[in-house]
Amino acid sequence: MPKPDDLNFLEFMQTFRRGELLVEANEQLEELIEAVQRTGGKGDLTIKLPFKVNDAGQIECLPSVTTRKPRRALGTGIYFATDEGRLTRRDPNQGDMFEDELADRRGRHDTH
């Protein structure tokens, strides 16, 4: 039979370091949910409660709260390499469809 001072799981979580565990878990939960909504991805929140007996015979607990949040993919960028080893958006092996027209326009502007 539990005694009045005995803590159940929920009471332990609520009273750990005056509520710090719940505050930390709640903050990380909010960040996780925001990331899930923003990205449409998956994530998780983990609360670990490791217990051990210390040298004085007391039970110690050093919990940790961690999240694995989804990240939005940046997407693929398509580039071409020049003979000089630089990147360009234009295929150096393909001529410009309007190259002659641009040269004509530039020539006309230079004469005025």
Walk me through this protein's architecture.
Strands 1-4 form a two-stranded antiparallel ribbon. It has a two-stranded antiparallel ribbon with strand order 2-3. The protein starts with 8 loop residues before the first helix and ends with a helix. It has helices at 9-15, 20-39, 99-111, and strands at residues 44-48, 51-53, 59-61, 64-68, 80-81, 87-88. The chain contains three helices and six strands, in the order H-H-E-E-E-E-E-E-H. The model has no long low-confidence stretch (mean pLDDT 88). The radius of gyration is 31 Å and the shape is rod-shaped. The longest helix is centred in the N-terminal third of the chain and has 20 residues, at 20-39. 36% of the residues lie in helices and 18% in strands. The protein has 112 residues and is of the alpha+beta class.
Give the structure's gist in a few sentences.
With 112 residues, the protein is of the alpha+beta class.
List the SSEs and their pairings.
Elements (H helix, E strand, L loop, with lengths): L8 H7 L4 H20 L4 E5 L2 E3 L5 E3 L2 E5 L11 E2 L5 E2 L10 H13 L1
Q: What do the pLDDT scores average to?
A: 88
The number of E-state strands comes to 6
Which percent bin holds the helix content? 25-40%
> Measured on Cα atoms, how large is the radius of gyration?
31 Å
Strand line-up across the major sheet: 1-4
How far the N terminus sits from the C terminus, by CA atoms, comes to: 102 Å
How many separate helices? 3
* Rough outline: rod-shaped
Report the sheet-strand fraction. 15-25%
Structural class: alpha+beta
This entry's quaternary arrangement is single chain
- What profile does the largest beta sheet have? 2 strands, antiparallel
Low-confidence stretches: none
What string gives the helices and strands in order? Answer: HHEEEEEEH
